[in-house]
Amino acid sequence: LLLCLSAHSVPNTLLNARYQEMVQLQAREIKDLRAITDKLLATLQEIRAMSDEQKIVQKILTMIQGDYIEKPDFALKSIGAAIDFEHTSATYSCSKARSYWNWFRLWDFAHSPEVILEPNVTPGNCWPFLGHHGQVVIRLARKIYLTNVTIQHIPKAVSLSGNLNAAPKDFAVYGVDDTGEDVFLGAFVFQADSALQTFDLKNKHAKPFGSIKLKITSNWGHPRFTCLYRVRAHGTMGEPETTAC
């Protein structure tokens, strides 16, 4: 009889141990969930305490990290696009400011025009040129039939100066063929209050181009320079070149 009772007590002991283990596991999970909930509530309270302007800035900073133009960009440096420096305006620089920074052994504040071929659109990461007349010629990563160009600037909410008067305004787009001839593809106006704008080009399927020229003729009021943040070129791949056998 004692052996029989002992045999029955072993499974019961194991069941009790297993039950206690499950209870402890669930208790830990509940504790973790409470910690996550408390953290979420604290974040919500912080958001509620933020001003409307802070909320807008936070939203914009989140948005500019993404890419909302669902088109291939053939003016992207990482895939082979490059600046034709010979036919591009000189970079604006202030000698006093440059001497000041170099004295502290820091880099020159004026960026190369190559910066417009990169996706990093953050305040100050732009190419400045003197005045409000300037141009840039981009050698595309591939020869394409151009269809659109996209111009991007920072939003006013994240501008350190509080305005966008250095943004480009009136500009024209040209396709540049293998002989160096410019083909007019349209004149447009960049609205500074909209950070990301895509423009449909004229003569879309005239012929493929290996380079594109952006000629800016005015800005939104800055007296000394114009800043260009990013330029994208969209289109379809041209027919592959054939060689005689």
UniProtKB/TrEMBL annotation:
Subcellular localization, as worded in the UniProt entry: Nucleus inner membrane
GO CC terms in record: meiotic nuclear membrane microtubule tethering complex; nuclear envelope; nuclear inner membrane
Record keywords, A-Z: Coiled coil, Differentiation, Membrane, Nucleus, Spermatogenesis, Transmembrane, Transmembrane helix
InterPro entries: SUN1-5, SUN_dom
The UniProt record lists the keyword Cell inner membrane: no
Keyword check for Transport: no
GO biological process, one term: cell differentiation
MF-aspect GO terms: protein-membrane adaptor activity
Occurrences of domain SUN (ranges): 80-238
Domain of life: Eukaryota
Name of this chain's protein: SUN domain-containing protein
Organism, as annotated: Ornithorhynchus anatinus (Duckbill platypus)
